[in-house]
Amino acid sequence: MIGIMSDSHDNLDAIRKAVKIFNKEEIDVVIHAGDLISPFTALEFRKLDPELVAIYGNNDGEKEGLKAAYEEICILEDFKEISVEGWKFSIIHGSNQAIVDSLAKCGKYDVVIRGHTHKMEILNGETMIINPGEVCGYVSGQKTVVLLDTDDLSFEVIYI
Hints:
The chain is of the alpha/beta class. Helix content is 21%, strand content 29%. It has a single domain, classed as Purple Acid Phosphatase, chain A, domain 2. This is Phosphoesterase. Pfam families: Metallophos_2.
């Protein structure tokens, strides 16, 4: 099982709730699709039991501070490719829709995980595209994360 989140934007209370959900479920890895924002958020992500895989988002301007704060938790980059239970994932913040579309169409990935729009959206096609929405709730008013079952890529949207 994979936990997917994005756009936490310093909302410590929402991050705590998401971490609690992921620790309660049988999650192997948590993927954060960018916009962590401040280095101090690492204090909450250190409480995660599962492994964290995270990338930078367009609002992550303090990259050196984030890199230092998260270095014991995960390696932050602009883009990542990972495999989980035989499934290939690409992780991108997604501020450029053409790149997201190209990743989905290239045939290399089973799932493209993206953020940026703050809009929860899951598209099933040859390549699944998952945008878990926003953890912060600042834009949509909804705080969401996604649980993805690695047996069959079924999913559940969790409102926090």
